[in-house]
Amino acid sequence: MAVFHGPSVSADAIYDVDRIKLFAETIGIAGGSSEEKITHQAYNLLAEELTEIMKKIIIDANKYQIHGRHSMMKVADLEQACIDRTIKLPMGYVLHEEKELRAITNSSGSDLYVHEESDIEINQVLQSTSKFPPPVRFRCHWLAHEGEIHPVSENLVPYKDVSIEVEDQKPAKKIIARRDTAKILQGNGPWSLYCTLSRDIPHQENVAIRPLPPASLSVEKQAYLKSVMEACVGAHDPLRVAALHSLETDTGLQDALPILSNIIKTGIAANVVQRCLSLLIYLVRVIRSLSLNKSLVLEPVLHQLLPSLLTCCIGQSLCGRPETDNHWALRDFASKTLVILVNGHVKDLPSTRQRVIRSLRRVFEDKNCSYAMIYGTVLPLSDLMSAKEKAELYPRFNELIEECRLISSGQQIDPHELRFMPGSREEAGRLLSVLMKQMEPMMRSMRPGIITYPVEHTRRMNIF
Amino acid sequence: MSALSESINGDGGASVDPTMQIDIADQALSPELLQRLIAFCRKNNLQQTEEALAREAGLTQGNAPGGLIQNEKIMADFASFLNNIEGAYDVLQAELSLLLFPVFAHSYLKLLFDVSPSMARTFYERFHLRIPRAYEEQVIELSRCTFPEIAKDNELVQLLKSQHFTIRISKTCNAQLDQFIQRNATLRTIMKERIMVENTDLLSKNRLAVEWQMGGLLGHPSLKEQKKHKVLYAVAREDSPYVDKRKLKTKESKDKKREQMVPTADRIPLPLSDVLRLERVQMQKEASTRMTYVNADHPPSICCFTALNAGSGVSSCDVSDDTSIIALGMGDSVISLYAVDETKQLKQLKEADELDKIDLETEPELLRDLIYDDASACKTRTLGGHSGPVYSLNFDPCKRLLISSAADSTIRLWSVDTFRNVVVHRLSRPVWDVKFCSRGFYFCTGGADRTATVWSTDRVHPLRIFPDCYGHVTCVDYHPNCNYIAGGSDDRYVRLWDVLSGACVRTFSGHKTGIRGIKVSPCGRYIVSIGGDGALCVWDIATQRMIAAETRTMPTIMASIQFTREGDTFAVSHGTSSITLYSLEALIRNHGHQDNSIFEPKINPDGFQIFHYPTKTTPVVGLHWTRRNLLLGIGSFMQ
Questions:
Q1: pTM of structure
Q2: Per-residue model confidence as pLDDT tens for chain A (464 residues)
Q3: How far apart are alpha carbons B237 and B219 in whole angstroms?
Q4: What string of DSSP letters covers B427-462?
C-alpha cells in the first residue's frame, strides 16, 4: 500500500529548487543580476513540474512492467514510457564486465595497465557449435497430485507441523526415570550412575553396508587366490613380482575381486594397528596391480579400496619407528596408487571423486595435522584437483612452504614457537621438497593476476 | 490574509484580534461583515447562534457569499461537514462517508485554482487523513497537483472537472444530507455542480458493505442508465458442451427461467465452422468419458510447465483448447510454440501446388493427415514479427489462428497451419489484452487507448469500439454466449458491453485499484475480477451487484483466472508464485440467494477459497484446464 505523502514542495520532490537553479546556471539562463532573472516562483514551478513528469513516467513504466509480467521494472519499461511522452531516450550506462588488465612494462620502470582489445574472429563464432543464448525449454513436473503437493525439488514442500502425540504414560515414565536418576545421584558411585543413565540411550546403529555376496569360486581359483596372496605378502621377492604381474594382467579376476578386496581391506586395517610397514607396502602394491588391470571393474569394491589407500596416504603413524623407518615411501606409493585408481576407475562417479578430494583437503588444511600426514595429501591433491580448486588452496600452500622453510633451514627458532609446529626438522624438509615439486605445476595452472607470486621465496630456494 | 482566516487556518486558536473587534463594533452591518460573523460562528461550532443570526439578518440561502470570504469558508465548511457526518447516526455515517472524497477533492481544487497553492496545501494536510482508505490513490494523485498549471494537465482533475461524481444513497440518508446542505454554502455549490445523488432502495446494512462500493474514479455507476438495458446472460446449450449431467436432472424447473435469458441465435451473426463443429464433437466425447470434477472434496492435480533460460522473461502465454500447443510470448518480442505431446509435433501445411494434387473426396479424417507436410514436423516453432514484449496471446477455439498483441502497438494474427503472420493491425497505443470469441471469428482487445474493441478475422477495421473507460483497459474477456464483452480498467470499474448495441450495459464499482484480471463464468452469469491489490471480486450480472470479495491475497502483477470445464471451480494465479483455487459453486450455494433489498457482500466467506499451492521461485504466468480438468500452470523460472 502506498504511503501518504504531503504535497509540500520539498517533501518528496525529485528535483528541488536548488537543483533547478543549478541547471539554469549551468546552461546560462539564470540571469544573474540582470532584469531577466528567473524568479523563485518560477524555479518552484519548474521543480514541481519536473517532479510530476518524472512521477508520471515512473507510473507509466510501472504499467509496462506489469503487463510484461516482470517482478522488477526494467530499463526497457522506462524507455517505452519515455517514448510515449516523446522524450528522447536518455543515454544509458552500459557497464562492461571487468576484463583482465594487461601490464605493459615501461622503460621508465612504472608499469602501464591496459585492457586487452582483441579482434573477434567472426568465422569462429559462426562455426561454433554451441548456440547462444540457450533456447528456452520447458521443465514439466507435478505441482500437486490429487491435491497433495508433489515432493520433488521443484516444489515448495510445505513444512508439516509434526505434532508428537504424547501418550499419557510417557511423561509418567520420564518422571519416574528422572526420580531414579536423582536417587542415584545422591547415593551410588559413578559407575552405577553411568550405567543407569546410559540405559535409555538408544544405541547408534551404524550404516548398514550390504555385505558382498560370497561368490562361489571354483577350487582352482581358490587355490590360485591363496597362492597369489601368499606370494604377495611372502618373503620371496621374485615370486612376489610374478604374483603381482599375474594380478596386473589376469583377465579372469572379476569374480574373485570381492574376496580379494576384503582380504586387502582387513589386511590393511590389521597392519595399521600392528604398525607393520612392510606388509602395508605389499598390500598397496596389490592394489596398484589391481588398479592397473584393464579387465577389472573396480567400482563395486571402491568402498573397500579407497579408505584403505587413504589410510596409507594420511595415516598418523604407519610404522613403529617413524624416525628411521621409511614410511615416506609408503605414503608416496599409496598416493600415486590413489591417483591411478581415482583417475582410472572413478570417472563416472564425480561425487566419489569429490569425497576423496574433500577428505584429503581436510587434512591438508588442518593445522593440527602432522607434516607426515600432509605429505601424503600433496601429490593426489595436485593431481586430482582442478585449477580453480587449487587456487583456493593456495594460501595454505604458501603458509606450509613458509613454515617448512623456517624449520628445515635450521634457523634458531623460539623453542616456545617450535612446540606448536607439527613435525620435526626432517619431516619439514621432506614436506618442503614435495611441496616445491608441486609448486611449478600449481603455478602454471593458476591464472596470473589472481594471486601474489611468492617471488622472494622461490628465488631464495634457487628453484628457478 | 485577514486575521480571521489566520485564526481558521492556524492552530485553531480562538483568539481574535482586539482591534478587529473594535472595528466590527464601529462598522455598519454590511453583508460582508455578516458573512464574517457567520463564518466565525461556524468555526466555533455555534450553530444555533449562526442560524439565528442568519434568520434575523434575512440572509437567504441562495445568497452568494463575498469573494475573499468564500475562500476562507471552503475550509471551514469542510470542517463543519466532517463534524456533521461524525454527529450523524451510525447507519447514516457510513453512507454519508461516500461523499467525503468528492467534496474533499472539489474543495481542494477550488482552493488550488481560485485561491492559492499554499492554501490548498494547508487544506490537504489538515484533512487528507480523514478520507476513506479506498480513495487513497486518488488523494495522493491530487496531492501531486501542487500548482494549478500541473493540475490542469492531470487526468484525474480533468475527469473530476468534466464529469459528475455519482453517489447512490438511501432516502433517509438523502434527507439528512439535505439538512447539511441547507447550512453549508460550499457543500451546496459542490453538490449542485459536481455531484449527482441517486436514491436507492437497496439498504447497505453495514459499514463494510458501504466500503465495498467505494473506489471508482467517479463514484457509483449510474443505476438508472443500467436499468435501461436487459442483459441476456445465459448461454445456449450448444455453446456449453461441459454441462454437469448431475445438475441437469435436479434443476429442470429452473431451466425455463434460464432459457428466457439466452440471447436468440441470430442476435448477432455467429458463424460455426465445420472444423469447430468437429472439434466440439470431440470435446463432448472427451468430456463424457474422462472428465474429473474438481471441488472441495476432489482436490485438483496440477502440472507445472516451467520455462527455463527465458532471459528476457515470459510476458504472456496461452494453451490451445485441446492442450496440444503451448504458446509463449517473450519479452524479446518472439512468440514460441511448443508441442505438448511429443508424438503430435507441429506440422506445416503443404505448399499450394501440392495441396491441389490431393484428392478432395478422401475421408475427412484421412484428409487431415494428407494436407500437412510430415517433413516439417518439429517440437518448437518460433514466430517473429513483433518488435516489443508480447503482452497477450490467444488461440482461436479450433487452434488454426493465434492472435497476439505487443508493445509495438500492433495486433497480429498468425496462422498456426503455416506458421506465418496473416494480418497486422497497426494502432496508436499498445494493446494489453486480446481474446477470441468462443466460436472464433470475432476477437476483442483492450488497450492503452482506453477503449475495448471488437474485431473480426475477415475485416481490417474494428466492428465496435467501446470508449467508456477513463483509464487503460487492462483486461478483457468474451462472454461465453458471444454477445457481450467484459472488461476491466485502470479506472477501477468492471464493465460489460453489448456487442450488438455497442452500449455499456453494466458497470460494477468496488475495486480499490486498477483491475488486473477478468473472467466471465462459463454459465455466463458471474464475473470474477482481480485488482492490483490482489482483491478478488465476484459480480452477479443478473442482480447487478457484488456477491463476495476475497482480500486474503497478495499484490498482483497480472492475474490469470481460469474456470474448470464444468464451471464450478476456478483457479487463480496472481502473477506471483502460487496457484489458488476457489469454489464458485459453494459460494453461490451458501450466499447466492440474497435479499433483494439489502446489499451485503460477503467478505472472505468460508468455503470459497478451497486450495492454495505455492510454487518455489516460479511466478505463474498462465493457467489452463485440460478437457479432463487437469490444471496446467505455466511459469518462467525466477522471472
A1: 0.65
A2: 333 333 344 456 677 888 888 888 888 887 666 566 778 888 888 888 888 888 899 999 999 999 999 888 888 888 888 888 888 776 655 555 666 677 777 777 777 777 776 777 778 777 776 666 778 888 888 888 888 887 777 787 766 554 444 445 555 566 666 666 666 555 555 566 566 656 656 555 555 555 555 556 788 888 888 888 888 888 888 888 898 988 888 888 888 888 888 888 888 888 888 888 888 889 999 999 988 888 888 888 888 888 888 988 888 878 877 777 788 888 889 989 998 888 888 777 778 888 888 888 888 888 878 888 888 888 888 888 877 777 778 888 888 888 888 877 766 555 555 555 666 777 888 888 888 887 777 766 654 444 444 444 433 333 33
A3: 38
A4: -SS-EEEEEE-TTSSEEEEEETTS-EEEEETT-SS-
Q: Does the distance separating the beta carbons of A6 and B125 come in below 8 Å?
A: yes
Q: Does domain A216-377 have CATH number 3.40.50.150?
A: no
Contact A310, A301 (CB under 8 A): no
- What confidence category does residue B256 fall into, taking pLDDT thresholds of 50, 70 and 90? confident
CB B449 within 8 A of CB B428: yes
Q: Return the amino acid letter for B237.
A: R
φ, ψ (nearest 5 deg) of residue A90: -70, 150
Domains, chain B, in order of start with CATH, read: 60-220 (1.25.40.500), 287-291+314-342+381-561 (2.130.10.10), 349-378 (no CATH)
Residue A69 to residue B313, Cβ atoms within 8 A: yes
Widest Cα–Cα separation across chain A: 119
- What cell numbers appear for B71 in the block? 475562500
Q: What's the one-letter identity of residue A66?
A: I
Shortest Cα–Cα distance, B273 to chain A (Å): 33
**CB atoms < 10 A from the CB of B451, how many?**
22
The secondary structure of B543-602, three-state, reads CCEEEEEECCCCCCCCCEEEECCCCCEEEEECCCCEEEEEEHHHHHHHHCCCCCCEECCE
Residue B562 has pLDDT above 90, yes or no: yes
Q: Which of A76, A138, A149 is closest, CB to CB, to B307?
A: A138
A80/B121 Cβ within 8 A: no
Q: How many CA atoms lie within 13 A of A279 on its CB side?
A: 19
Place of cell 546556471: A25
What is the complex's ipTM, to 2 decimals?
0.85
> Which CATH number does A17-84 carry?
1.10.20.10
Which whole-number Å values give the CA distances from A200 to A170, A194, B262, B490, B507, in the listed order? 13, 11, 76, 68, 72
Question: Which grid cell is B499?
Answer: 456487442
Closest to B284 measured CA to CA, from B589, B598, B587, B565: B565
CB proximity A86 to B under 8 Å = no
Q: Which residues partner with A142 through β-bridges?
A: B303
In chain B, % of residues over pLDDT 70: 88
Q: How many Cβ pairs within 8 Å bridge chains A and B?
A: 154
Q: How far does the CA of residue B465 sit from the closest CA of chain A (Å)? A: 22
In chain A, what are the domain boundaries? 17-84, 216-377, 386-464
Using alpha carbons, select from B94, B96, B145 the residue that is nearest to residue B120: B145
Q: Residue B180: enclosing H or E segment and its boundaries? A: helix B171-183
Q: Note every long-range contact of B135-138, with CB atoms under 8 Å and residues 24 or more positions apart, other chains counting.
A: B135/B101, B135/B214, B135/B215, B136/A1, B136/A2, B136/A4, B136/B512, B137/A2, B137/B512, B137/B513, B138/B101, B138/B105, B138/B217
Enter the C-alpha cell of residue B609: 477459497
CB A364 within 8 A of CB A378: yes
Look at the block and give the residue holding cell 513516467: A57
CA distances from B508 to B226, B422, B497 (A): 10, 37, 12
Contacts of A155 in chain B (CB under 8 A): 615-616
